[in-house]
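Lab channel / #folding
Pinned by the channel admin:
"Please post every new chain as: sequence first, then the structure tokens as a reply. Keep commentary short and put observations after the output so the thread stays searchable."

First post following the new format, from NK:
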Amino acid sequence: MSTVEHQAYVLTGGPVSLQMESPPPVCQDLTRLTLRWLNGYEHYELDRNASQASGKRVYRWIYRTKIAE
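Reply from TO:
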């Protein structure tokens, strides 16, 4: 499982290539985070238990959507 840590949040799961460089979120609210990556979007959901344990917002990867061309 990949883990990427930013100043404000932590990503768990999702593409391993996001570990090298992670783009800024295109959509963010209290429970969801969406990142544009390659030819699609990576969707993450807030993991409340992990967030409480780490002191940062921890988002867990839930699915990927592709951009229609």
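NK: The CA atoms of residues 23 and 37 lie 7 Å apart.
TO: also worth noting, The chain has a mean pLDDT of 87.
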